[in-house]
């Protein structure tokens, strides 16, 4: 294991801001953060995760309700070109903190801001600090009052780990606020969203065309449900994905929208089955994971005419997914 790196303040001053050690530059190396950690602090957000996420909606603005000391820390982001004229502040004084009178000021402030703008915002995000979190302020109610006064969507953003419910981390809460702006669509049971969680793409979705124009040359189509990994890596006895090529049905869906090569995955263990999918043009590439753990020489044995010697993956998930979940690495029951 490498020794921990450290640097004194004096050494940093001597180096100057343009010569920082690579160990202090997050873009130069990987830093592991668990999903739970990322829900509280996003290292890529450079300290403004909640604000940037809250302003991810085009045309949105943000009202920060905070004492002067908290608002001052956020004023730096206002100077950034992409965020100027999108941040507004409602400063809380000691009387506000003790009596909560600022809660009546928020809807008025939102209305005043919207009236002062040449173009109405698409949504107003109200960002609260630890003060309102500790006071237990019902921000959903405040947002509803602000919506009644302006006729515009208003959503809360919690900047601190404490919330009224005491359960949701800030980034999770902000994402839910953003998702609440989406108009619910009727779900289609046989369609899977490539970028979401069991949500359908609309029939006239422009996503595929946009990806092609952006330079995408192929699609790797699979299913991911990380709340239940057996749906992502289905065993042989899975109620819906037990058959060979269990995810190829989703390749068929994607094929309706693009002529680019498609890579399929899911229970691809039988060489004859794989060859038929390729020959029929259903897929242009076959991906394997568990099968190559079961027999890393799958391709070479097939090329040399020894398909009968291939150790077929039985999709038991005992040592591969099981080993992964037990932090023992990915292995296979065929290993000796």
The class by helix and strand makeup works out as alpha/beta
Number of helical segments? 16
Give the mean pLDDT. Answer: 81
Note the quaternary state here: single chain
**Sheet of most strands:** 4 strands, parallel
Uncertain runs are 195-199
| Straight-line N-to-C gap | 29 Å
Q: Would you count the extended β strands for me?
A: 7
Rg, nearest Å: 26 Å
Task: Write a structural description.
Helix content is 37%, strand content 9%. With 336 residues, it is of the alpha/beta class. It has a 4-stranded parallel beta sheet with strand order 2-1-3-4. Strands 5-6-7 form a 3-stranded parallel beta sheet, with helices on one face. The radius of gyration is 26 Å and the shape is elongated. Mean pLDDT is 81; it is low at 195-199.
Summarize this structure briefly.
The protein is α/β, with parallel strands linked by helices and 336 residues long. 37% of the residues lie in helices and 9% in strands.
Question: Which terms would index this structure?
Answer:
alpha/beta, three-stranded parallel β-sheet, 7 strands, elongated
List the topology elements:
Layout lengths: L8 H7 L19 H6 L8 H6 L6 E7 H11 L8 E6 L1 H6 L2 H15 L7 E5 L1 H6 L3 H12 L3 E5 L11 H10 L27 H7 L5 E2 L8 H4 L15 H8 L6 E3 L6 H9 L5 E2 L3 H5 L3 H6 L17 H5 L11
Parallel strand pairs: 1-2, 1-3, 3-4, 5-6, 6-7
Helix pairs in contact: 6-8
